[in-house]
Amino acid sequence: MQHVTEPLPYGTWTSPLEAAQVAQGEALLEWTGFVGEEVWWTEARPQEGGRSVLTRRTADGPAPALPPGWDVRSRVIEYGGRPWLALSGRAEDGVVFTHWDDQRVYRWRPGADPVPLSPAGAWAAELRYADFAVRGAEVWCLRETVADAAGTSVVRHLVALPLDGRAADDPAAVRVLTGGHDFLSGPRIEPGGRRVAWLGWNHPAMPWDSTDLMVAGIEPDGTLAAPVRVAGGDGESVTQADWAADGSGALYAVTDPDGWWNVHRIGPDGGRRNLCARPEEFGEALWRIGLRWCLPLPDGRLAVVHGTSGRKLGLLAPDGRLEDLESPYTEWFFPATDGRRIAAVAAGPRQGRTVVLVDPDGGTEVLRAPSAAHPEYATTPYRRTFTGPDGEPVHAHVYPPYHPGHTGPEGELPPYLVFAHGGPTSRSHLVLNQEISYFTSRGFGVVDVQYGGSTGFGRAYRERLRESWGVVDVRDCATVARALAAEGLADPERLAIRGGSAGGWTATASLAAEPGLYRAAGIYYPVLDAEQWRTRGTHDFESRYLESLIGAWPQQRARYAERSPVEGAGRIRAPFVLLQGLRDTVCPPAQAERLLALLADSAVPHSYLTFETEGHGFRLADTVVRSLEAELALYASVFRPSP
Fold this sequence. Notes:
There is one protein chain. By secondary structure, the protein is an alpha+beta fold. The protein contains ten helices and 39 strands. The strands form nine sheets. Strands 31-32-35-34-36-37-38-39 form an eight-stranded mixed sheet, sandwiched between helices. Strands 14, 15, 16, 17 and 18 form a five-stranded antiparallel sheet that branches. Strands 2-3-4-5 form a four-stranded antiparallel sheet, with no helix packed on it. A hairpin with a 5-residue loop joins strand 21 (about 260-265) and strand 22 (about 270-275). The two termini are about 35 Å apart. About 55% of the residues are buried.
């Protein structure tokens, strides 16, 4: 029987995908690992207050691994880092993890309650830990000491915590291993325990600008010899380093001296070669401490995640041959290995985030299926590359409006929402996304712009944004919006823009720069005042980020003012909804409040929703529901069907 669709105006379609189902279905699956034969991962649950549950795959399906109440996540650099590690290949040895509420490190063994390994923070400092490694009777990790509530006075060290727990009550039992950089990754201990490697970088560089790959010998007493830089430096970003698992003494570095994050082998003699020189990325921007994309295997091969606007999982041989594994997935996150198998979170255009177990010589097993509601209402997205006014490429993901029971009336073009991702040195993924389906199943198109500065397309594309934030991102979003309208895919009178964090900056700046292009905006926890954010507003990790995005401080102070969306408040004509967590230390509420104060006497309709217990990035189900419904109400009121 042929399926018949009913014509209805775009933006008025009734969808069974409700905001509550989006909130419930978007559980964040992260940080996979092996505990004995089992695969474990963390799972953020919006319906449980955003708690991150350490989850294991049992014979009966996924189940919490720890006793009730534990929240496994770290606050290092505010964006977090790898929060747990199995202590050995034996399940009975248990795991170590960071608990969100107090940021202490705990050890858990089957049949017992977790016990603390690290001391409590003092009244004058908060201690945070992440990215663990085990050496003998100690766990080595990154420690962050935060001396102020705003997170702007911070020092970092690699430290050793005794596994017997005596440091829980005796801070002097914590051994400081090394420091020397403003920022550090956790330690990577060579098999055999002779050497340790880590990444470090200093202000004003961000980790995608320049990092140092450091190596130090480990003395018999567990102290470190003088460290030596073996890769990285000015203009080279090492985003991951791991020792070979085959006993060769080689070190693998994912680094970009040639403009792309490729895998380089650094031999025991210091000799270095690019294993697979390609205009592709084998890594990503290091927004979270402990991320990995390259996994050394005992047989000398490496499991690698690679690509440009999408990602494949492949096996890279020592001679540089790369063989990709067959899979329906186009994105791979948080891969881990036990030497035989690979666990990861995977997703694709028709699949939401899924925990999978891959046998390189066999098949792929789904361990935790996606929980997306009404996947039959998801559109089929595709990639496009548009051409900017100066001939430069602008990459984007296009999600046309789709409903199995409706189509638009003949001659009517759909409204489109332009999504600007956060970061801005980041990217979004062409995968099944329930937040996007919430809009496309109601007759709105979505285009997710990978504007200049986005990762995935090499250093040159990232650096298009250098000292041009608020210009290139705004221009690229407008280029894509106008191209869709010119091609007859979008209604030029019904375009909106939406973004969070750095994407909120782009959305707000776009309202001011393009008052005739966009008719509405959804703005989430935005950066709005560059000078205030730079000098008084944000945490240590990003406190000097703007020097690469806008210019040197204070030499370019005038440019900071000129680029800030608050300075363009008087040019905003389109209605918007502004959504803000009151505990946000990355983009504090003062930014949003200043914009609203400037618009107090304006005729621009706007609404401001605040959430008392939310930080940067919303985790609670009720917050997600209220935000999506407020955003939809705005678009529905502005984008009434065309005549």
